[in-house]
Amino acid sequence: MPCPALPEGFDATDPDLLHDRVPFPEFAQLRQTAPVWWCPQRRGITGFDDEGYWAVTRHADVKYVSTHPELFSSTTNTAIIRFNEHIQREQIDAQRLIMLNMDPPEHTRVRQIVQRGFTPRAIRGLEAALRDRAGKIVAKALTASRDGSFDFVTEVACELPLQAIAELIGVPQEDRLRIFDWSNKMIAYDDPEYAITEEVGSNAAMELIGYAMNLSAARKECPAKDIVTQLVAAEGQGNLGSDEFGFFVLLLAVAGNETTRNAISHGMHAFLTHPEEWERYKATRPATTAEEIVRWATPVVSFQRTATQDTELGGQKIKAGDRVGLFYSSANHDPEVFTDPDRFDITRDPNPHLGFGGGGPHFCLGKSLAIMEIDLIFNALADSLPDLRLAAPGPRRLRAAWLNGIKELRVTHP
Ligand code: HEM
């Protein structure tokens, strides 16, 4: 049934919606008038196909779907990486090896293993090194800046998430630019400026997987005291196979890198356009800041599920096989849950946002790491670059279906 207020042909997954208009007025319309709405076609931008899907826009419904994997499966159409058909046929069933695309009990097995690398102790163990790196990144941006201006995305936001993943899995720092390059190619194919074909993106993914599989083979032969060893070669605790490990690193390179980079870029943009909040941050450094940045920016706009059986959601009859899009961006501005939802408020507490997912089995594995990285970078900026200003022409956005990304954010400093 058409939603009366929406423009003809509206598709909530259209990346052009993101350009400079977050939070979208269309989502407010949907939440009010058709919170579970059948979008009859997709414009093909996400690359899955052109079939319709249910757009789920209210906080409560997004949570419900996320926490009922028996009704809403992740095994079809959830993937955020595309692989070309050649790779699918000739090598392995690539999508099935990414944990985001698994359901329990297979997902539970893999999650239990990879969680070993993400214990609070493991994440705390990275803090001192990452604090040091955050300080150096900000200092380097200052010296690299010409005419008192620089691109915040390349000089600052890109750096820490990559270094954190390299640190976490023990990738030698000299290889991190290769991972950066592969990861960019995998994600940017919707953006015409990058002119990256699906084949280039897909090949980049396979190169990264090959790299990780070699790393895993090396640790199996010669165990070390690192997370790779824990995941692939620890005795008697259940391990990941080499290909499973390869796909896990692939997931980290996208799920842990691009997301955090964009949270940092959006956080900076939010501070530059809300100078009173930046003053407040510099004075008091509230511990609630990073969560509000993730709510405000919602780097992951949406993920999908597929109904396993006929069911009901928000008063709508969902048929087995129907696809369901979970719009975290919309849920994070739901006035039923958030007071003054369109206000950027770094002391917001409680802040039950769904930027890291709706709380089900796939809830973001790297949340604590991401929050730590965001805290560290803004602390370093407040210490060393406290007077940044937005330079013209404002942020240039990435054109990607599920990611709310910023490609360039020029800033000036006195
Ligand atoms: C899953 C967001 C940072 C690793 C997810 C999901 C979201 C998300 C929305 C899916 C949740 C669901 O389907 O219920 C974010 C955001 C980040 C971030 C917004 C940064 C601000 C990270 C980092 C890492 C990471 C730093 C690791 C280094 C993962 C993994 C999954 C995941 C492995 C899949 C978990 C599973 O399938 O069980 N993330 N993430 N993420 N994230 Fe993050």
From TrEMBL:
Pfam families from the UniProt entry: p450
Gene3D superfamilies from the UniProt entry: Cytochrome P450 (1.10.630.10)
InterPro entries: Cyt_P450, Cyt_P450_B, Cyt_P450_sf
PANTHER family, alphabetized: BIOTIN BIOSYNTHESIS CYTOCHROME P450, P450, PUTATIVE (EUROFUNG)-RELATED
Annotated family: Belongs to the cytochrome P450 family.
Protein name: Cytochrome P450
